[in-house]
Amino acid sequence: MRFDRQPADGQRIERIIARLERRGPDSGGRFIDGELALGHRRLAIIDLSARSNQPLVDEALGLVLVFNGTIYNYKALRAELCELGYSFFSEGDSEVILKAYHRWGAACVERLHGMFAFAIWERGPRRLFLARDRFGIKPLYYSQNASGFRFASNSQALLATGEVDRAIDPVGLHFLFSLHGVIPAPRTILQGIRKLPPAHHLTLGTDGQADGQTAVPVRYWQLQAT
């Protein structure tokens, strides 16, 4: 997503998608809306039809989704949403996320049981929402600077944009050698790439802010020791 109000670069999103193809061999697609571009490679598991291909666009709700993972309780959530008046055009768990976000907003993540990393674009307010599962099973890397915000499920895809600071993060390097190869979120080995922490979500507009304030990840769940 660009912050300078210029159109998104379609060629750049294609380079990102190409880095993800081996992990999503069943289909691929892209969505461009002004300064925002979304790309996806799909590994079809639940709904094998093209109706669940991504980016998943719900024209009626004005929402677009890219999603990596599985929602284990999607059938129960779907039934609840149907009772609330929602209708579905697919049989998968991806569309359930879209409807749940429309109904409950950011609080929808508290209802999702599973492993997930996803982003939802709201076409009306032109706002991007990202979330990661409670234990960080699914990865979500991002890079932000004055020119824009980029995210992907692996760092190689982000590096394909050509706009990421590749300098070594000394704190990340320290973690790498002292924690047996583990670098805790939000840091990575590179200065220009960060990880959305587990059990967090992030909302930002096309100016890189959230309601006029600096966009920061928000924790939605924490393990309680008993």
Structure summary:
With 226 residues, the protein is α+β, with helices and mostly antiparallel strands. The chain has helices spanning 10-20, 74-83, 94-104, 155-159, 170-178, and strands at 27-33, 36-42, 56-58, 63-71, 114-122, 127-132, 141-145, 148-152, 194-195, 200-205, 209-210, 213-214, 218-219.
Strand-helix topology:
Blueprint: H1 10-20, E1 27-33, E2 36-42, E3 56-58, E4 63-71, H2 74-83, H3 94-104, E5 114-122, E6 127-132, E7 141-145, E8 148-152, H4 155-159, H5 170-178, E9 194-195, E10 200-205, E11 209-210, E12 213-214, E13 218-219
Antiparallel strand pairs: 1-2, 3-4, 4-5, 5-6, 6-10, 7-8, 7-9, 10-13, 11-12
Helix pairs in contact: 2-3
Throw out a few tags for this protein.
226 residues; alpha+beta; 5 helices; 13 strands; globular
Q: Which residues form runs of ≥5 with pLDDT under 50?
A: none
Summarize model confidence as the mean pLDDT.
Answer: 93
Largest sheet: 6 strands, antiparallel
Sum up the overall morphology in one term.
globular
The number of distinct helices, counting runs of at least 4 residues, comes to 5
Number of strands: 13
